[in-house]
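note to self — DONT lose this again. spent like an hour looking for the file last time. sequence + predicted structure for the chain T wanted, 116 res
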Amino acid sequence: VQLQASGGGLVQAGGSLRLSCAPSDNIFRFDVMGWYRQAPEKQRELVAVMRRSGDSDYADSVKDRFTISRDIPRSTVTLQMNSLKAEDTAVYYCHAEYCITGVYFWGQGTLVTVSS
């Protein structure tokens, strides 16, 4: 399985970006899909995930600013990021998982830089 992430870039604080993740398999084959991020010298952390049921979880730091959703016709998972802050600067990784087997996959990462 390959996860193709796109949409990163440079944006000013307060701006918006939209990330997309296109898996090589149908998005509904996975139990969970979502986004993690890793800032310099920090551990990778969960940003937002969505289960096959449509339920989603967010990190407290991004609640009310980020929205994860599915684009079913395109079979992609998107992360709409609004009101971006300098502390959102990180490499964002798409993630997909089969929970029963514990098998998971990572995309190649896309850099988001927020200038203050």
